[in-house]
TrEMBL record:
Residues 329-476 form the Asn/Gln amidotransferase domain. It catalyses: L-aspartyl-tRNA(Asn) + L-glutamine + ATP + H2O = L-asparaginyl-tRNA(Asn) + L-glutamate + ADP + phosphate + 2 H(+); L-glutamyl-tRNA(Gln) + L-glutamine + ATP + H2O = L-glutaminyl-tRNA(Gln) + L-glutamate + ADP + phosphate + H(+). Its EC number is 6.3.5.-. Heterotrimer of A, B and C subunits. SUPFAM superfamilies: GatB/YqeY motif, Glutamine synthetase/guanido kinase. The gene is gatB. Belongs to the GatB/GatE family. GatB subfamily. Keywords: ATP-binding, Ligase, Nucleotide-binding, Protein biosynthesis. It comes from the Bacteria. This is Aspartyl/glutamyl-tRNA(Asn/Gln) amidotransferase subunit B. NCBIfam families: gatB, PRK05477.1-2, PRK05477.1-4. It is an enzyme of class 6 (ligase). One of its GO terms (biological process) is translation.
């Protein structure tokens, strides 16, 4: 039996740190990168006698994320203690939500190989993050509790994924949604977004789920894809050899490219939950939910469709721009006064994107305002400068922040469109390029391009290429007649 006879079944638990300034139950900073154990206090480290106070912003952000993912919102929810013993939990329990989560029954639509697929969101609940264990080779382990108490949302999906590609596309879409909703910075390198992967294998056509393993704390999309592909093959090999898959927690070893067993997991839910006695239930009115809903921006799918319909740009270009809220906002400002909306998109994708890394794209770290791009596009559209000169002007705008009009005036870059001035040059180019002229007369249409190139070189790129093209054709046809 081959791998094609099996089906992989995957569900995700995605953890996203919320971008509040303070922790979920105390006033300690959530800022990343502080010296170890400097952003913690008796409350977040669970000292006896301390009492937590819920950060209201955490609830608001949790609801906002839920609405962005088309979830229902529980008007009455509560916090619970999730008990497990591990050094990164100073209280020996994590404050989370069990039977009454903040959000439930949502969905995110993704497109995989041209087909639309709905991924069901089982629930979204708020909880506190744990500390960070640092394993030092040969010297044991140390703990940094700065992250302990940082607010999280956990997004739990149904087992609706059937491939690593499904998962990759979903995680990219989810990250975009969270950034649009402005509830998380989603910096995977800082642990702001990470996921656990629950994976099982079954023969195609079977309805019963196989025994699953859980892969913890995947902190990059690439690692998630590699871990899924490896683990699926590992489980298939076991089944093909008539061996059992053990229900367990595994981790991805990036250096070896394999998953490694961490601990067995006898039951699907082996935590002892009970209501958190130190915190009141969370009661949210319908009015408050609607207020939060109204604060959501236009989400990426809606923007994508609008860019295609309203601005007539390609779906590919629209996806690239809409992938970042900041870049989409920049684009929206730039097109407001632009004579050619598609041209604005082209300049962003070809010139701006080529100068930015992924993080800079996401943050739209562009050294000039959208109005400068609008001005540049309009100078090209009204014939003041050519597209090639436009690239030079763009480069100077990027370096200096000057306005395109000022650069064009200072450097005398206006396009030459005067027929009389161009005709004398056309006659000279024809005279000095006899072979190209004969090639054109013999039916080689591409030869006209070489002549246009000579004209552009002679005018240092300032000649109007459309006019030059036509004047050359007219002059050669006249000469031939």
């Amino acid at each position: 039996m081959s791998y094609q006879d099996y089906e992989v079944v995957i569900g995700l638990e995605v953890h996203s740190e919320l971008k509040t300034k303070t922790k979920i139950f105390c006033s300690c900073s959530t800022e990343f990168g502080g010296e170890p154990n400097t952003h913690c206090c008796p409350i977040c480290t669970g000292m006896p006698g301390t009492l937590p106070v819920l950060n209201e912003k955490v609830v608001e952000y949790g609801i906002k994320a839920g609405l962005a993912m088309n979830c229902n919102i529980n008007e009455f929810s509560k916090l619970d203690r999730k008990n497990y013993f591990y050094p990164d939990l100073p209280k020996a329990y994590q404050v989370s939500q069990y039977d009454l989560p903040l959000c439930y029954e949502g969905e995110i639509e993704i497109e995989v190989n041209g087909e639309m697929k709905k991924i069901r969101i089982t629930r979204i609940h708020i909880e506190e993050d744990a500390g960070k264990l640092i394993h030092e080779s040969g010297e044991g382990s140390v703990i940094d509790y700065n992250r302990c108490g940082v607010p999280l949302i956990e997004i739990v999906t149904e087992p609706d994924f059937r491939s690593s590609e499904d998962v990759r596309i979903f995680l990219e879409k989810l990250r975009t949604i969270l950034l649009y909703a402005d509830v998380s910075d989603c910096k995977m390198n800082e642990g702001s977004l990470r996921c656990d992967i629950n994976l099982s294998i079954r023969k195609k056509g079977d309805s019963k789920l196989g025994t699953r393993t859980e892969m913890k704390n995947m902190n990059s999309f690439n690692n998630a894809v590699k871990a899924i592909q490896y683990e699926a093959k590992r489980q298939i090999r076991l089944l093909e050899n008539n061996e059992k898959v053990t229900q367990e927690t595994r981790r991805w070893d990036e250096s070896k490219g394999i998953t490694i067993s961490m601990r067995s997991k006898e039951e699907a839910h082996d935590y002892r939950y009970f209501p958190e006695p130190d915190l009141m239930p969370i009661i949210t009115s319908k009015d408050k939910i609607e207020e939060i809903r109204s604060s959501l921006p236009e989400m990426p799918d809606i923007r994508l469709k609008r860019y295609i319909d309203e601005y007539k740009i390609t779906e590919y270009d629209a996806r690239l721009i809409a992938a970042s809220r900041n870049m989409a906002d920049y684009f929206e400002e730039a097109v407001k006064g632009a004579a050619n909306k598609k041209s604005v998109a082209n300049w962003i994708i070809t010139e701006i994107f080529s100068r930015l890394d992924e993080e800079q794209k996401e943050q739209a770290k562009i050294p000039f305002s959208p109005s400068i791009l609008t001005e540049l596009v309009n100078l090209i559209e009204d014939g003041t400068i050519s597209n090639s000169i436009g690239k030079k002007v763009f480069g100077e705008c990027w370096e200096t922040g000057k306005r395109p009009n000022d650069i064009v005036e200072e450097k005398g870059l206006k396009q030459i469109s005067d027929d009389g001035q161009l005709e004398s040059l056309v006659n000279e180019i024809i005279k000095n390029n006899e072979k190209a002229v004969n090639d054109y007369l013999n039916g080689k249409q591409a030869a006209i391009g070489a002549l246009v190139g000579q004209m552009m070189k002679a005018t240092k790129g300032k000649a109007n290429p459309k006019k030059v093209n036509q004047l050359l054709r007219d002059a050669i046809d006249k000469l031939n007649n």
